[in-house]
DNA sequence: CGCGCTCTTGAAACTCTTCAACCTCGGTGG
DNA sequence: CCACCGAGGTTGAAGAGTTTCAAGAGCGCG
């Protein structure tokens, strides 16, 4: 597992007209405009009053292998990342060295926002599978005020969104039992797949059972038991990481989302 | 309990030279410069490159009485608030109508950030005691990009801070037992009092036991039992809401903060 | 092929919640 | 002035849910 600076080695991005020779890693030159996630990663493209400036500073990194770090807890904060493909987890370490997962990040989602206000990343980010990200270099927003109103707003909105998600997770962790937590977790994942126009009721979990447990504040064994119980109840069909949601409505009811389901 | 719009009735702020006649509510005219919390609420005043513009838009509201709402869950997002005096709690409602507390807000701290990216406040904010706030009208940061770099940065930093605090709370809720939660809660409060140059080891809790429980994901009875146990262990002395921390170090150890204690 | 990791399952142990009772205190009204 | 009342707080005992410990099955990979 390499460290951030090596791991995220940036490509030289070719400008629109300029034709550069292929670099060693032979990665595709990319533009946000070409990206299949553009509408998700940069929503409201009508809002593009930066004249393309925002896009110019976003660069795609070389792919991360499974188990590779995007950044580590304590690293100097450089930039925020948008996931292009694959999946990441962010986590910190507890006193006894146990890994405590704070989030999973799928394509079209941003990673690293929590480091924004300070000099360092407060958690580590690691690839759960072959993963590609786009790097949004911000240095310190403090020292170098962004002159890109569009991107700034987008970041603001994402942070606010993450704040609300976090609060909802806190409610989940304080008040919900194991069944409700797993149900909510599956429904949440389902919605995130749907937002990418992927099958919402049939997907592959990018994380292990024990990672689900760490995220939801449950022991692995409990996660496993709940999965088994859900299958007996015909709510889901699961085979390893492959999951079919058989009864989405019942599952949603079980999850019992209440505060604000609507992401606005 | 009144609604936001009535509750937060703004004063006309007098300009520096202009002498206006007292208004009916006879509240003191205030400036950020005069505020005892200025260095906390607006840290790094050397950084004041807005030429005072940021300060101009901040207005102090009339005091809220205990039990009065600052805003309600679902209200349209108008502004962020800085607490001047008193204390607030923010909370949502669960399916069964139970109140779920997401945070306590003491003087010098901001309230309402989680509504920033959307049109509405995702939680309610209510005064735990006589409370005064300063209103920072932002409308929608989206539509009306702030031209106040200093204030914008301050908000950014606060959101990021809140993100990290939230993640730490999630760790607390997933992994810590009742003793550890209460210890962490007291240590956190202690630090927040200290940052205002108030006694860090002797303070009055602005919230009820059941509110502590709601915040920490514990039953009231559990909170009460832990308080009793801590007193038997001579970690604290508590009489109602009045708390003395007798053994700050032991309490910190018990709390076992690990991820990032340093607020940067 | 076997080793290790993941996942599953069972039984015991433990923590926290729930239910119920009681206490204290401050406010209110007789 | 005192009794009453309700809210907040404390304490005990029973019960539920989850963790922990232990063992075994499945599976991929060197």
Automatic annotation (TrEMBL), chains A, B:
InterPro entries: cNMP-bd_dom, cNMP-bd_dom_sf, Env_Response_Regulators, HTH_CRP, RmlC-like_jellyroll, WH-like_DNA-bd_sf, WH_DNA-bd_sf. Residues 1-26 are annotated as: Disordered. Keywords: DNA-binding, Transcription, Transcription regulation. It comes from the Bacteria. CDD domains: CAP_ED (cd00038), HTH_CRP (cd00092). The keyword Transcription applies. Residues 176-249 form the HTH crp-type domain. PANTHER family: CRP FAMILY TRANSCRIPTIONAL REGULATORY PROTEIN, FUMARATE AND NITRATE REDUCTION REGULATORY PROTEIN. This is Fumarate/nitrate reduction transcriptional regulator Fnr. It comes from Azotobacter bryophylli.
